[in-house]
C-alpha cells in the first residue's frame, strides 16, 4: 500500500542498571527502587552492552533500514549506538522523545509493595479506570504513550513510504506498536502484555499487509543465544505497578 512503511522493527534496549535494581527491590520486598539518577540517564549494564553488540551482528546480516530512531533515554540510545557500530550499517541515528519510556509520575521508583502502601487510593482508581487509561499523578497512561508513538509513525509513513524503519526503545513501545499496527483490542493487548515477556535486546517486527501490519518477528532473541549474550527478561522499573 502506498504511503506507508513496508517494515517496522523495534529493538528493546539491553539490560540496564534500572532493570537490575528493580528486580532486587521487588525480590527483596522493598518499597523503593535504588536508582539515584533520573530515569532518562540510567545506563546499560556490561551484559546490556554485550546484548546490544549481539543486536548489531544480527543487523549486519539483515536488510538495511532506511531510518534508525532511538528513544532519548540513555539505555535505548546507547543500545542503538553500540548496535550500529557493531553492524557496520552507516545510518544516522535520530533521537526522538516520542518513543521514550512511559512516565510514572509520583509512582516513579516505587515497587509494587511501595505503590500499594503509599498510594492505596491510586490502586483503587487504576482498577476502576483500567490499566490502559489509568494515568498516575504526574505521569502517563498507556493511551498517552500510544498517542505520541502514533504521531511519530504518521510522520515516518509520510517521509519514508515503502521504507524500512528500525526503532530502539522500550518494553512499553512494543505494546503501543501492537495496538497501533495490528489493531489489537485493549483487553487483548493487556492480556498479551501480562503473559508475554519482552526480553532485553529482543527484536519485534511488523510487515505491511494491506492497511494494517502483520507480526513478522515476536520478541526474537536467537541472535543473543548465537552470540553468547545471556538473554534477560527484566521489566522496566514500575512497569507492573502502573
From TrEMBL:
Task: Extract the SMART domains matched here.
Answer: PGAM (SM00855)
EC number(s) stated in the UniProt entry for this protein: 5.4.2.11
Q: Which UniProt keywords apply?
A: Glycolysis, Isomerase
Provide the GO MF annotations for this entry.
phosphoglycerate mutase activity
Highest taxon listed in the record's lineage: Bacteria
* Classification via PROSITE patterns: PG_MUTASE
InterPro entries, alphabetized? His_Pase_superF_clade-1 (IPR013078), His_PPase_superfam (IPR029033), PG/BPGM_mutase_AS (IPR001345), Phosphogly_mut1 (IPR005952)
Amino-acid positions noted as binding substrate in the UniProt annotation, renumbered to this chain = 12-19, 75
The enzyme's main class, written as a single word, is isomerase
- Write down the Pfam families for this protein, in alphabetical order: His_Phos_1 (PF00300)
The family classification in the record reads:
Belongs to the phosphoglycerate mutase family. BPG-dependent PGAM subfamily.
Q: What is this protein called?
A: phosphoglycerate mutase (2,3-diphosphoglycerate-dependent)
Amino acid at each position: 500500500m502506498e504511503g506507508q512503511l513496508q517494515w517496522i522493527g523495534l529493538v528493546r534496549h539491553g539490560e540496564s542498571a534500572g532493570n537490575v535494581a528493580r528486580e532486587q527491590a521487588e525480590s527483596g520486598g522493598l518499597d523503593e527502587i535504588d536508582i539515584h539518577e533520573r530515569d532518562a540517564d540510567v545506563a546499560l549494564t556490561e551484559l546490556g552492552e554485550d546484548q546490544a553488540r549481539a543486536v548489531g551482528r544480527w543487523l549486519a546480516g539483515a536488510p538495511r533500514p532506511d531510518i534508525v530512531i532511538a528513544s532519548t533515554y540513555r539505555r535505548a540510545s546507547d543500545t542503538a549506538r553500540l548496535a550500529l557500530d557493531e553492524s557496520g550499517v552507516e545510518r544516522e541515528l535520530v533521537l526522538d522523545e516520542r518513543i521514550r519510556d512511559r512516565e510514572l509520575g509520583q509512582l516513579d521508583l516505587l515497587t509494587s509493595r511501595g505503590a500499594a502502601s503509599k498510594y492505596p487510593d491510586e490502586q483503587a482508581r487504576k482498577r476502576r479506570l483500567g490499566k490502559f487509561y489509568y494515568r498516575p499523578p504526574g505521569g502517563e497512561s498507556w493511551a498517552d504513550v500510544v498517542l505520541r508513538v502514533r504521531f511519530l509513525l504518521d510522520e515516518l509513513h509520510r517521509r519514508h513510504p515503502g521504507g524500512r524503519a528500525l526503532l530502539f526503545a522500550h518494553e512499553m513501545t512494543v505494546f503501543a506498536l501492537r495496538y497501533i499496527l495490528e489493531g489489537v483490542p485493549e483487553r487483548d493487548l493487556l492480556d498479551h502484555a501480562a503473559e508475554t515477556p519482552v526480553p532485553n535486546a529482543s527484536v519485534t517486527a511488523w510487515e505491511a499487509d494491506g492497511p494494517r501490519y502483520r507480526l513478522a518477528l515476536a520478541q526474537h532473541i536467537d541472535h543473543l543465544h548465537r552470540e553468547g549474550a545471556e538473554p534477560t527478561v527484566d521489566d522496566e522499573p514500575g512497569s507492573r505497578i502502573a
